[in-house]
Amino acid sequence: MPRSVLVVLAVLCLAAPALAGSGKQVRYVGIHPLPKSEGGGICYIEGPHVHIFDVDKVQYRDHRGAKYFVGDPVAYGYDGPRYAYKGHHPIHVDVVVGDDQPDDTFCYITGPHYHYFAPPEGPEFKVSGDAYFYVGEPPRAYVDARPAMMKINAVYQPIVYDRPVITVDAPVGWIGARAEFMAPSAGVVVEGPAAAAVVAPPRAGVTVQGYIPMPSLHVDIGIGAPAVIVHDQPAVIVHERPVIIEERVRVKHDNGRHRGHY
Amino acid sequence: MHKLILVLALASCSKTGDPGKASGRDAVVEAWKAAKLAPSTLSAATVTFAKDCQSGTIENLDLLLCSFASPADAKAAEDQGLTWVGAATGAAQAHGAVLIVLADRRKADPSGRTINRLLKLAPN
Q1: Cβ-Cβ contacts under 8 Å, B115 against chain A
Q2: Going by fewer Cβ within 10 Å, which terminus of chain A is more open, N or C?
Q3: Every domain of chain B and the residues it spans
Q4: Interface predicted TM-score of the whole assembly (ipTM), two decimals
């Protein structure tokens, strides 16, 4: 066999492992779900570690170059210790992962959910009904990031799992009941016909939370990016008890002149 | 009396001479053995980021234990330790002056529970 062929074969043999293992390392810190392509379930490595797969951006934040999961691990089969929360709240990532570089982020899951950590003791959380309620003063960054981060709720909406059942009233000062931090309902941002909303009168035992807008055409007047939001279909918001918002769109008839929307 | 002085001197040397050496690595292995997680026989390993390393397997995971002169040196080598993991799930953590590197190249620990347990058992 010619020497040149042997050289080529040798080079290919040496390169084979590198080509086969060309998966790029992605850094993680803390417990997180595993993608279905990896078999699903949970990765229970609490400290810094690597995988060779990437994940979505909505459920993760960057912590010193590593991906940190801010979602509800129970939704993915986590079977370890868990702590119930309701509504948005800060996560002190440095405390959770045990390093000395302060790093605060926010969880934007609306309604009851779990995390695998309890918040540090202090005045910013109140415990009621075995659940943590955030009663602190959120930073500007929380409101600024909210429009993008609220998408996390769309991830959890279709997942069927045992969420915490929180039946107690929220304590005074809870972020979910403060007008200045009312989160816009998940809706479709549109421009066009004015819409009128009718909030169905609560049935017995139904709680209508104060942040449900009426009419549904509203401007988010928080200190974040204002947004005009019109719901294009009835929305059902479930917290402890169901609330049904019905929508009606008024159409002005112009006797066939078709001048468009008013 | 002379014997006593000699013994004390030797003991002193062993403590101040190189605190991160084999004693730290042995302590890690002993902690695992106490939890019935015994590694295979470790053999000398050559890597670019440390001079005193041994490799083997534990619970079907690939294991690299490197001793450094100080905890700071071991900590500084964590990122380089990940290069040894390669294209696999793994971790590189300094525990005292010992760098522990674990790689799950055979997908033996898909949930990471064993890696997490080994790292938590290792003394700092």
Answers
A1: 45, 49
A2: N
A3: 18-121
A4: 0.84
